[in-house]
Structure to design on (926 residues):
């Protein structure tokens, strides 16, 4: 750098400043939007974590205390509920990835026109109401349901309704598109010449896939996993409707605080805790992912 | 970041400060309402499918106003909407314990009884109820019970309903794995408390713990917890015993019946002999109202004998309107589980707000489900 | 990419992939079939009774339901368009510009709406709108939907942008005079699948949201209305609405594809 004349340095600095201005300009609309319609409200609810419960739910902004925060760290019930929810979310994400990757791969390797049609047909079922779809699963999995009949015919399973498998079927069904969309976006723009080269280099297609395709679509896998993991961790409607509400998950717990116990301070502090955990997990995932893959 | 925090705090305080203003002004306005007055369109905030659409149309035609309906599905979802004052609702339909909360928090106004002459049609049993002892803030809309719906496959038709069928593993025939319970802490902890002989409104932690143990012990017998479709699951044969609200069961039985099939021959509903939970939904005017006179007129309209009966014929819940009984379908009126005789009525208990103990109920229910 | 070399192994793999894809589509559409079939059922319950248009008649006669459907479509359309534009710009800023004022904060802020439990977001937005003294209305619903959709759109677009070769854009910048032209001619077509995916996701989320809408609503949207109806056990009417929406979207999609093909 020292060999550059002062003029070039100045020009570079100018260019950099212009560049940074342009970046800010692009980000600004959403930046401002999120500051006002997200960050600000979030801080309000953060403040609520320290308030005390009122009879109507919306906290009284007096009698500040640390009760909700303390409960978070001392209550065994919350801890076991959280652990249980974590397992559900991890398994759901894994199932979605296993089913979604080959599916997205198939779509992304069709001709351009077919691709678009196939992709839109992934989304169409999801433009009908979520609740209605989930209740339809009750019919399929129930005593006389199609899937139950199939299972009986194959002698493999009986009615799965109100059991754990039903919960996983419902969750994977609900969140699979969140996995497929980013995966599709990532696979579609793969540089196939690299894959070809890898195929020539390594004998087995599997090694080529593992060494080249998979790392190249890493971003899609990460984005998809985040998009699935997060709502699975907060899921409460599907476990209730298909699992029979027999076990409380953390999503239920938060919703109960707001909509049954009318305990907004505790609801707020549990939500904050969930967000912190997820933020840490996401950051950690990004950091470690960048190194190992 | 610090600046944002300060602004947020300011907002939060602002939000708290502008809660209860304009209340006394509204009471004055309401006091001037005469019978049949209207002072604008009615913004009605009600439970879904809770009013016969024909009644709404009739009211619009009679009084030349428009009724805008919005819906909610739980008292807890309705409360913050009213408290925040984000909508100018003129009339809401809170349940019993919610009336206490709303009146004590200043969210609903004292009614001008002069503008509601039809109040005299009310059954005296529905005046002076504990949630609104002086009938100052609310007028009963409809009421019902939560008991047991069952299939006659497992019990004889003359079975005297009892919570034993759920809680006693020795009950014959065995209904294990075919039971649904309400997915609601107060209702479901409530029946366990009732079975143990305690009040459903207990604030004694030891009694609540006992109820938790009882429910945990029979959890394997329960197929699911559900508050939305329990009646459909019973009728479609997925369950054989269901804990739920009376009107939902009857609506489902009625819907399942046709010219060739009578669902009442296969299914029944009973109020258990140990006692059960009763509830009353009421009409009240929130402080956000901007047409208080129309709201009073609407209350008076629904208290009319024929209109009150139309409500009951529409959704199978009993009317607290005694004068409406001649117009109620005889089948509904004669059904002792909808219009229970006095001795059954005495075994019923209304849910009351237990203040901060509500969180103990919620924790207890989560404990059962862990 | 169907033209890649056709060794027996690849062909077999392709067949397996195809079978898997059909299986996944079956999985996606099974509940939809149930819903369509039972929308034509005379009975309210999920047991087949007789063919009937009863629920369709009832649906069209239900003014509240129709109003909710209309509100839902408006909310979904407006919030999808705005959040796709904002989200794409945000993704470009984060992926294409090394640093700008507050980039790191922005990056984190953009993730928060995705990881917050929806009921918490619902409660905080309600408090926020009403402490501003705002009347809750269809506008507050749209504002809330945009707030969570920006993040979802930007995540999908970023996944697309991440490994895209910037050299292409740089070459384009040299080739065309203006940045805008370079963007329109090169970058936009390249990221289009990501933008489209993000928009589809936003549309879906908006059409499905119950909890947040329930808190910030003025008028009912279809999901909040359905939520209340299900409590009362009147589902076939909803099946009828869903069938209608499905038919409309399939017609719309196929129509636009046909148009595209002609051009």
């Amino acid at each position: 750098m020292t060999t550059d004349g002062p003029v070039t340095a100045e020009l570079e600095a100018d260019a950099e400043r212009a560049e940074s201005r342009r970046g800010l300009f692009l980000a600004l609309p959403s930046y401002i939007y999120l500051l006002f319609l997200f960050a600000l409200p979030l801080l309000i609810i953060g403040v609520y974590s320290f308030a005390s419960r009122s009879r109507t739910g919306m906290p009284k902004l007096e009698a500040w205390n640390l009760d909700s925060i303390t409960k978070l760290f001392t209550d065994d019930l919350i801890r076991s509920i959280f652990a249980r929810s974590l397992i559900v979310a991890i398994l759901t994400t894994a199932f979605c990835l296993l089913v979604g990757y080959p599916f997205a791969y198939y779509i992304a390797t069709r001709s351009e026109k077919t691709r678009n049609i196939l992709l839109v047909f992934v989304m169409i079922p999801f433009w009908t109401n979520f609740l209605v779809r989930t209740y339809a699963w009750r019919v399929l999995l129930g005593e006389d349901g199609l899937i139950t009949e199939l299972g009986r015919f194959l002698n493999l399973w009986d009615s799965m309704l109100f059991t754990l498998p039903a919960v996983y079927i419902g969750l994977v069904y609900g969140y699979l598109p969140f996995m497929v969309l980013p995966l599709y976006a990532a696979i579609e723009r793969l540089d196939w010449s690299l894959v070809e080269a890898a195929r020539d280099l390594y004998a087995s297609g599997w090694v080529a896939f593992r060494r080249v395709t998979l790392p190249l679509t890493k971003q899609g896998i990460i984005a998809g996993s985040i998009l699935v993991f997060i709502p699975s961790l907060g899921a409460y409607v599907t476990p209730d409707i298909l699992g029979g509400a027999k076990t409380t998950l953390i999503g239920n717990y938060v919703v109960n605080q707001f909509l049954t116990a009318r305990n907004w301070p505790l609801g707020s502090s549990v939500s904050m805790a969930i967000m912190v955990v997820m933020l840490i997990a996401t950051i950690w995932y990004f950091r470690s992912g960048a190194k190992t893959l | 970041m610090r600046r944002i925090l300060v602004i947020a705090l300011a907002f939060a305080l602002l939000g708290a400060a502008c809660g209860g203003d304009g209340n006394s002004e509204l009471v004055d306005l309401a006091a001037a309402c005469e019978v049949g007055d209207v002072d604008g369109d009615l913004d009605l905030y009600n439970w879904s499918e809770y009013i016969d659409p024909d009644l709404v149309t009739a009211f619009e035609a009679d009084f030349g106003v428009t009724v805008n309906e919005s819906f909610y599905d739980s008292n807890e979802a309705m409360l913050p909407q009213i408290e925040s004052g984000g909508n100018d609702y003129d009339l809401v339909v809170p349940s019993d314990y919610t009336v206490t909360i709303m009146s004590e928090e200043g969210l609903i106004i004292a009614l001008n009884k002069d503008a509601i002459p039809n109040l005299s049609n009310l059954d005296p049993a529905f005046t002076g109820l504990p949630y609104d002892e002086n009938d100052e803030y609310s007028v009963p809309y409809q009421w019902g019970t939560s008991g047991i719906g069952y299939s006659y496959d497992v019990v004889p038709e003359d079975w005297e309903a009892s919570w034993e069928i759920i809680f006693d593993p020795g009950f014959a025939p065995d209904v294990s794995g075919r039971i649904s319970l309400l997915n609601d802490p107060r209702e479901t902890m409530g029946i366990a408390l009732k079975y143990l002989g305690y009040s459903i409104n207990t604030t004694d932690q030891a009694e609540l713990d006992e109820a938790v143990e009882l429910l945990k012990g029979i959890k394997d017998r329960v197929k699911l917890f559900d508050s939305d479709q329990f009646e459909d699951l019973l009728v479609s044969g997925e369950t054989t015993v269901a804990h739920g609200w009376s009107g939902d069961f009857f609506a489902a039985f009625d819907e399942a019946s046709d010219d060739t099939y009578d669902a009442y021959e296969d299914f029944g509903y009973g109020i258990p002999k140990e006692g059960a939970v009763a509830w009353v939904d009421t009409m009240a005017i929130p402080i956000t109202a901007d047409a208080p006179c129309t709201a009073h007129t609407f209350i008076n309209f629904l208290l009319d004998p024929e209109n009150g009966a139309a409500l009951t014929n529409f959704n199978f819940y009993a009317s607290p309107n005694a004068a409406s009984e001649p117009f109620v379908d005889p089948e509904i009126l004669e059904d002792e589980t909808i219009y229970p005789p006095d001795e059954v009525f005495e075994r019923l208990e209304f849910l009351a707000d237990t203040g901060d103990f509500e969180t103990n109920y919620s924790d207890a229910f989560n404990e059962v489900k862990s | 990419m169907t033209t890649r070399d056709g060794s027996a192994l690849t062909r077999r793999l392709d067949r397996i992939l195809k079978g898997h894809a059909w299986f996944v589509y079956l999985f996606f559409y099974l509940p939809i079939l149930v819903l369509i079939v039972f929308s034509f059922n005379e009975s309210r319950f999920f047991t087949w009774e007789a063919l009937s248009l009863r629920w369709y008649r009832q649906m069209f006669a239900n003014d509240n339901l129709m109003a909710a459907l209309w509100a839902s479509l408006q909310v979904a359309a407006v919030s999808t368009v705005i959040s796709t534009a904002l989200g794409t710009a945000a993704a470009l800023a984060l992926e294409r510009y090394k640093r700008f004022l507050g980039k790191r904060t922005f990056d984190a802020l953009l993730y928060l709406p995705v990881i917050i439990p929806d009921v918490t977001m619902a409660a905080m937005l309600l408090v926020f709108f009403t402490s501003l003294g705002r009347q809750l209305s269809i506008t507050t619903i749209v504002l809330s939907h945009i707030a969570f959709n920006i993040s979802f759109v930007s995540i999908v677009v970023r996944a697309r942008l991440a490994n895209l070769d910037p050299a292409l854009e740089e070459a384009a910048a040299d080739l065309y005079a203006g940045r805008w032209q370079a963007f329109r001619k090169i970058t936009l077509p390249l990221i289009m699948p990501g933008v489209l995916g993000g928009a589809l996701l936003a549309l879906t989320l908006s059409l499905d949201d119950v909890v947040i809408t329930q808190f910030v609503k003025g008028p009912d949207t279809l999901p909040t209305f359905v939520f209340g109806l299900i409590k009362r056990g009147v589902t076939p009417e909803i099946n009828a609405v869903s069938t209608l929406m499905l038919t409309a979207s399939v017609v719309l999609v196929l129509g636009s594809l046909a148009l595209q093909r002609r051009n």
